Amino acid sequence: MAGQTEQVLNAILMDIEAGRLTPGAGLDEADLVSRHGVSRTPVREAFIQLEAIGLIKRLPRKGAVLFKPTLEEFLAILEVHARLEGQAAGLAARRMTQDQARALAQIVCACETHAAEKGDGDPAGYYQLNLQFHGAVAQGAGNAFLLEMIKTNARKLMAYYRARYRFPGSIAQSAKEHREIAELIFAHDREAAEAAMVRHVQFDQVTVMDLLAALG
């Protein structure tokens, strides 16, 4: 039973990360039962776990829906998430291995190439590179607990970061900031790397309102 619960849970998380599930979308219990060939019990157990970490809400007579933040909730989550990402960058400046640094450098180059060659034309493709960048930095922090906290918070904001790259000029700016953060990590400048990452992740309130509006 535990294996089936994990199967359903991982499938839902993958749908969130791939953008197949967006904020406010309903999770159909019967569909999940049919798709995964399981009983309702592991589906409901997966829902309990997702609700415990704030990724879904279960509403009376409406079933489960993916968490959709209000403006106040978005700003609160973003404040915490920016600090977590900043902490990861600061730790990566101290702990990142040479192999991890090489991998990060390759991702940064890929971001720059994408921005130069495609401009604003492929936001979905760039978003996947952005995930790789942040994942590489978080891995370089060498703290598994911090990594899980970042993943959990990121899933609440992924749809909005994905929408952000549809704004003109945002891809080029992001790629530029990725380079700056990476160079600070490579230089082992912990405080500057942390501060740069916080600025990179944080949005101003006007931008947040635009993102909330873009996703209805």
Question: Can you put this structure into words, describing what you see?
Answer:
- With 216 residues, the protein is mainly alpha-helical.
- The protein has two domains: 65 residues, Orthogonal Bundle (Arc Repressor Mutant, subunit A); 144 residues, GntR ligand-binding domain-like (Four Helix Bundle (Hemerythrin (Met), subunit A)).
- Helices cover 75% and strands 5% of the residues.
- A three-stranded antiparallel sheet has the order 1-3-2.
- Helix 1 packs across helix 3.
- The N and C termini lie far apart (37 Å).
Outline the secondary-structure elements.
Blueprint (H helix, E strand, L loop, with lengths): L1 H16 L8 E2 L1 H8 L3 H13 L3 E4 L3 E4 L4 H25 L2 H21 L4 H18 L3 H21 L5 H17 L3 H12 L3 H10 L2
Antiparallel strand pairs: 1-3, 2-3
Short overview:
By secondary structure, the protein is mainly alpha-helical. It has helices spanning 2-17, 29-36, 40-52, 71-95, 98-118, 123-140, 144-164, 170-186, 190-201, 205-214; strands at residues 26-27, 56-59, 63-66.
CATH topology of the largest domain: Four Helix Bundle (Hemerythrin (Met), subunit A)
Low-confidence stretches: none
Basic shape: globular
Number of domains: 2
- Measured between the Cα atoms of the first and last residue, the distance is 37 Å
CATH superfamily descriptor of the largest domain: GntR ligand-binding domain-like
- Nearest-integer average pLDDT: 92
N to C succession of SSEs:
HEHHEEHHHHHHH
Percentage of residues in helical conformation: over 70%
Rg, please? 18 Å
* DSSP summary, beta strand count: 3
Name of the CATH architecture of the largest domain: Up-down Bundle
The level 1 CATH classification of the largest domain is Mainly Alpha
Number of helices: 10
Strand content: under 5%
Main beta sheet = 3 strands, antiparallel
Identify the strand order in the major beta sheet: 1-3-2
